[in-house]
Structure formats: structure tokens, C-alpha cells
Specification:
There is one protein chain. Helix content is 0%, strand content 61%. The chain is built from no helices and eleven strands. The N and C termini lie far apart (40 Å). The relative contact order is 0.31.
Length: 119
């Protein structure tokens, strides 16, 4: 079992920055990859960025250059630095982990944190 707790969301003006944090607890040694998804009203949840246990990163093409994912292994925390924010970035941001289990990989989700970008 893995627990994910996000923080750092809020209201920011267009062009501003925010840093989201996701603290993982529990069987963190079983996490194969951890990252961020987002879901805007009326839209499907989409991948923002992810980082594997080996450090490889994956980003949504449209967000490369503005968003950066990083992690602090000592704190079991993953971060999402978001710069040059746009109103289209407004969404609930969810932390997600792929966790190895006996019969494969399992998805774990945080509760989500709201990011609102005003124009």
C-alpha cells in the first residue's frame, strides 16, 4: 500500500509559477514510477509528467519547457515546478504512482490539489 498526499495548489495569475509536492508513504520501495496527472472541468484526465525509479522523465509534449518534475528520494517526495502558467493549466492535479505488486503493477492516486490560473 502506498499513500500519496499532494500540496501546493492554489490561485495564481497567468505567467506566474507554482510548485506542487506529493509526499509518498507506505511501501515506497515498490514504486516503479510516480508523477502527475491533471483533469480540467469537462475534460479527461491527462498525463502531465512522470519520473521512474531510475530517474527517467516523461512529459506531455505540450508542457515541455514550462513544467519540470523532480524528486527527493530521502523525503519520498516528488515535485512539479510549473512556470509561465496559463489559464488553460487550470485543473485538479493528481499525484499518481505505479506500484509493483505480486500480480503486476497497481495504480495509486492522491486526493488531488486545485490549481487555478487567472487571466
Amino acid at each position: 500500500q502506498v499513500q500519496l498526499v499532494e500540496s501546493g495548489g492554489g490561485l495564481v495569475q497567468a505567467g506566474g509559477s507554482l510548485r506542487l509536492s506529493c509526499a509518498a508513504s507506505g511501501s515506497t520501495f515498490s514504486i516503479n514510477a510516480i508523477g502527475w496527472y491533471r483533469q480540467a472541468p469537462g475534460k479527461q484526465r491527462e498525463l502531465v509528467a512522470a519520473i521512474s525509479s531510475g530517474g527517467s522523465t516523461n512529459y506531455a509534449d505540450s508542457l515541455k519547457g514550462r513544467f519540470t518534475i523532480s524528486r527527493d528520494n530521502a523525503r519520498n517526495t516528488v515535485y512539479l515546478q510549473m512556470n509561465s502558467l496559463k489559464p488553460d493549466d487550470t485543473a485538479v492535479y493528481y499525484c499518481h504512482a505505479m506500484v509493483a505488486g505480486l500480480r503486476g503493477e497497481y495504480d495509486y492516486w492522491g486526493q488531488g490539489t486545485q490549481v487555478t490560473v487567472s487571466s
